[in-house]
Specification:
Two copies of one chain form a homodimer.
Chain A lengths: L7 H10 L3 H10 L13 H16 L18 H9 L1 H4 L1 H21 L5 H8 L5 E4 L15 E5 L4 E5 L7 E5 L7 E10 L2 E11 L11 E5 L11 E6 L2 E4 L8 E3 L5 E3 L4 H10 L2 H26 L3 E4 L6 E3 L4 H32 L8 H30 L1 H5 L5 H8 L9 H13 L13 H8 L9 H13 L12 H27 L4 H7 L1 H25 L4 H21 L1 H6 L5 H18 L3 H8 L9 H4 L1 H4 L10
Parallel strand pairs in A: 1-5, 2-5
Antiparallel strand pairs in A: 2-3, 3-9, 4-8, 5-6, 7-8, 10-11, 12-13
Helix pairs in contact in A: 1-2, 1-20, 1-23, 3-6, 4-9, 4-10, 6-7, 6-9, 9-10, 9-11, 9-13, 9-23, 10-11, 10-19, 10-20, 10-22, 10-23, 11-13, 11-14, 11-19, 14-19, 15-17, 16-17, 17-18, 17-19, 19-20, 20-22
């Protein structure tokens, strides 16, 4: 890594590190200190205090500044900001969340929804002089942000907004920072002026004084213990007619004049709403990245353990067998490692796209919206992967996996909520599918919750958009080969990609048909609901296809032949295990013969066999430094490493 | 439940309560008190103390006595013991585990492996005058019990055993009670006398004095925090030549005379070993039951929440939609409820079989061994179900699901290790398959770890045993119908059972073929390992078939027509979702046409639709009293129950 000839693992790591590799390398050194690790023995109040201390140390490192524009005191490198903060996830996920709330969500709201008049707030939150929270979700509405119940009613007499929680379900809930540390909240509320509701807007509401006492009209509650993330002080906020100055409205997209006149550049309320939310896409990008980072830590721990721990002796040589030499263990861990590789490349690409859009280098009018869809899809894929992979790692390490000192259970409990926050995975998958089904028509954003169903249903003909990108990639892959493509040869990349693309096309097209068929004789909700599993499958197929494309692109960037060859095999394992998981679908829809499906299953076995000798290289390639694994059992050589076994009669 | 005409839910609950329904009913009242619930805000040391207090209260209730013979101070009702203790799982899983360690594992070892001379120990452990632990697992060996490294060497000079941990990996690990409370350990060790190793035996070793201080030669360590079960004091024990009297050997199956002569009624060391372990089957039976109980609590919470919580409005009526009215939500929860029903019936049957064997009412020579296989299989099925179901429930409740006050995360973290303890699920599935592959031949138990592979491979012809039971049941089901069976009609119970049985037969037969084919040119480990995924699939198919059979038998016992009809629909959903999950296999092996597989998928949708109106009845039928759910959000009506939604422009 630092001296001598670079190993295959080094090349893989460099590839997975992506465009901001230097940021990752610096963070590996900066964050290796024990002071950034979590301490599971602290009670939750002490854990919160510790994380706040850790944040103060982070605040001096120049990491957070990258996420802000020059004029706001930052360095204007959003890509580097996401990647740099993601590295905190290797140290402790509570720290990552808390930092993400302060600089990503709260800071991001002020930075992206505010204007010049909020510049001072950015400076203060950057240095942690001002601790904030992001008060969007309410007990009654999480996924359905448009129907939040909190109101901000403008009073022209005093030139103030009156922020109020009109119902019990309007209380802000699960808000990181609300329980203890935040002094100010970026509150999402229905803006009412001159008697008219203008929809959800965000405004800054001070909630605590400098002693941490709730300000008049504000009542905060502690959400208390959660399934994990003990260092994050989630809480509730209830507003009782709290008055804030007119200028506290984050007025980038709309403003209220002193007399109460509402003014906006985006006349369409629905477009305004989605533009507002769209600027906050970084949160979703970040959650996916951190979840995938957590999965990499867990897979590194479990694989290294499986390379030490032995159980049951092989009668032929009397040696006890390493866990990773069992087929079932290889099948448990190696496909998950392959998926981690795939997702790392996809995440790098996503961050790069986000960076180009947010720094104004990508001015394509559709880029922002495509970014939002991709961020939603990869958030789903990565958080789902984390939940599944970490669970598998825990079980694969048996009793040792259940001890907190071996970290897997902490990773598991901390990442558990990632499938929920920054967008519930089911809702996000649906969002992805909806964009596909309606070919990104602008109109659909202006429709009510299910209006898109009616829209999708009335569209003439097939709704599959031309995916010129994927078709071109398939062609390129075909051109690369020196012989013609044998459609049955699923080991060929072009065939693999074609299968993924076919599945997506077919599911999107038939979901559209189904909506249309139903819509003729039922109400939109029923039409939608009847096809919901189908719609979700279409979304998932799209996400899978994107991930494979990015894996292929990522491999193309590896120059070292040995590392590239290994990555190709990993990509095969990713593809084969995805095909195996979905083989019922492929057979049922005649995209795969039974024989091909059997070949795929055999292929998974052959691939885990082939990758077994490179398991440690693959782990090192994932780039979690050994010093950051912090699993006691990996250090406990005398207990777990045995070369011979004791004598016993059975 | 107590007055008036019994509802459908009452009838279902009575059916699921099974043969010891009265025990369950009594426990619902006895354990409803807040004092038996867990308190997640206690630190782990306080949590342990609280659980010990709870156990002292339980000790006065006559629950534990049921597990012991009359002559030992018990009432001799092992079935009632398992069921009664299982009910503790509704209150708090730490309490269940701690009680299970004391009365089930430690008590069970003394009761079942000891003799008259250990009678006083049983009496003391029953009343909690003596707290014990079950010191089997070591850091180096968990699944491979036969190769434990701890030694108990007999010294005829002093007529003592010298208990010793000869290597670092010989330390006892993850032992409940070892960290704080246990005064005595039932230690599994290689018994060496007159220079000969006689294999693993169990003996009683005092480890702490009355002040809780380690006795000379004993060093205990605290495993500290775990992924859950904070009320259980798991720890490590290292022995440095600790001497205990000869009589401390639990000598039911083998004894050492004062002069060191080894004496046993079971000459074959391997049969002795398996007989010893076999008597401890109750632990495995209990773990499955408690895991399933945890899943029922979680499903009750998540389903009740889905019947209150609304999100997104239906444009046709302006009403926000209940979560459970979404197809995707129905598909998340209802098949898991169906599986819970299936497993409840299977568990009742298992406990009944165990009761008959352990009370000497079933003297069939194969009964004990069949019981062990069934217990292993259902332990796997139920613990895996718990992990999956509780995770799904957590996610289905979104942010609220992540708050500890809503209990799902506690259920999740507490049950997580159930897939590991009392036998790792992969190893147990393999054990089930091994029995199938070798047709229960006695010989295989005497072979070394992989000797059975050689044995299975040399068996002539097919190894599928005649499953007279299942064939008869299929015939009975066919006879019941008044028309001939249409093989394609997968809605018919006999066809369903045939599909499950066909899958098992085919997998077992072909796994045998594969072992044979391989064994001709490779070593046993390679032959086994190459087929491991196949072997595991055979074990799983067998377990699935057993569960379906017991579901069918269970339904036959429901007298109320409405309840029976509902249970039949639930059984259909169980079958259809299992067929859907395995549809790739069924199609690939020509047991199902593509058309039939598509009908199955549609069938799942139709069934969740049909069961949706009965969701609450199904939850009530699972039998977790509302007072024992302890999820804050279910009481918080004003926050989650809304009938209309606020106005918003989008």
């Amino acid at each position: 890594m630092t001296t001598g000839i670079a190993s295959t693992a080094d090349h893989l790591r460099a590839a997975l590190d992506g465009p901001w590799g230097a940021v990752r390398e610096a963070a590996r050194i900066q964050l290796a200190d024990d002071k950034f690790a979590g301490d599971p023995y602290l009670d939750y109040r002490a854990a919160r205090a510790r994380v706040l201390d850790q944040m103060r140390a982070i605040a001096t490192m120049g990491i957070a500044e990258r996420g802000f524009r020059l004029e706001n005191g930052g360095t204007g490198e959003p890509g580097a900001a996401v990647v740099g903060l993601e590295m905190l996830a290797y140290a402790d996920l509570s720290l990552w969340v808390k930092a993400g709330v302060q600089w990503g969500l709260f800071g991001g709201a002020v930075e992206n929804l505010g204007t010049q008049r909020h510049r001072d707030v950015v400076k203060r939150l950057l240095s942690l002089d001002l601790l904030g929270c992001f008060a969007m979700t309410e007990s009654g509405h999480g996924s359905d942000v448009a129907n939040l119940e909190t109101t901000a009613t403008y009073d022209p007499d005093t030139q103030e907004f009156v922020v109020h929680s009109p119902t019990p379900s309007a209380r802000k809930d699960y808000i990181g920072g609300a329980a203890e540390h935040a002094r100010m909240a970026a509150v999402f509320a229905q803006l009412i002026t001159n008697g008219e509701n203008r929809g959800v807007h965000c405004l800054l509401v001070p909630i605590r004084d400098e002693h941490g006492t709730d300000l008049p009209g504000v009542t905060t509650y502690d959400d208390g213990l959660k399934g994990g993330l003990p260092g994050v002080d989630n809480g509730r906020i209830v507003f009782d007619r709290v008055r804030v100055p007119r200028e506290n409205l984050l007025n980038r997209f709309a403003d209220v004049a002193p007399d109460g006149t509402y003014d906006t550049d985006i006349e369409n309320p629905s477009r305004r709403f989605f533009t507002t939310l769209g600027t906050l896409v970084r949160g979703r990008v970040s959650v996916g990245g951190a979840a995938a980072a957590g999965a990499r830590v867990a897979l590194s721990i479990a694989t290294r353990y499986a390379l030490k721990r032995r159980q049951f002796s092989d009668p032929d040589n009397g040696q006890e067998t390493l866990l990773l030499d069992y087929r079932s263990h290889q099948r448990r861990l190696l496909p998950l490692i392959a998926r981690s590789y795939a997702l790392a490349f996809a995440q790098n690409d996503l961050v790069r796209r986000m960076h180009l859009v947010q720094t104004g280098q990508d001015l394509d009018p559709g880029a922002q919206r495509a970014l939002e869809k991709r961020a939603a899809g990869l958030k789903v894929a990565q958080t789902e992967h984390a939940t599944r992979a970490i669970q598998e790692c825990r079980e694969a390490c048996g009793g040792a996996g259940y001890l907190t000192e071996n970290r897997l259970v902490t990773l598991k409990s901390d990442t558990d909520v990632f499938t929920t926050f920054e967008g519930d995975n089911v809702v996000l998958t649906q969002l992805v599918a909806k964009e596909l089904l309606t070919s990104y028509s602008d109109e659909i954003r202006e429709l009510d919750a299910l209006g898109w169903v009616r829209f999708a249903a009335t569209m003439a003909g097939d709704v599959v958009r031309k995916r010129s990108g994927v078709r071109q990639l398939i062609q390129t892959l075909r051109d690369r080969g020196d012989d013609t493509v044998d459609e049955a040869d699923v080991s060929r990349r072009s065939v693999q990609l074609q299968l993924f693309a076919d599945r997506e096309d077919y599911l999107v097209r038939t979901a559209g048909h189904r909506l249309r068929a139903r819509a003729e004789d039922t109400a939109p909700f029923e039409a939608f609901n009847n096809a919901q599993d189908h719609i979700l499958a279409a979304g998932t197929a799209h996400i899978d296809r994107l991930i494979l494309e990015e894996f292929i692109e990522g491999i193309a960037g590896i120059e070292d032949p040995a590392a590239r060859e290994l990555a190709e095999t990993v990509c095969d394992l990713f593809v084969y295990s995805m095909l195996e998981e979905n083989s019922a679908w492929f057979i049922m829809h005649r995209f795969m013969s039974v024989e091909r499906a059997k070949a795929v299953r055999r292929g998974v076995n052959e691939l885990v066999d082939r990758l077994r000798p490179d398991a440690l290289t693959l782990v090192e390639g994932m780039g979690v430094p050994e010093s950051m694994l912090r699993a006691a059992m990996l250090a406990d050589a005398s207990v777990f490493e045995r070369t011979a076994h004791s004598e016993a009669p059975v």
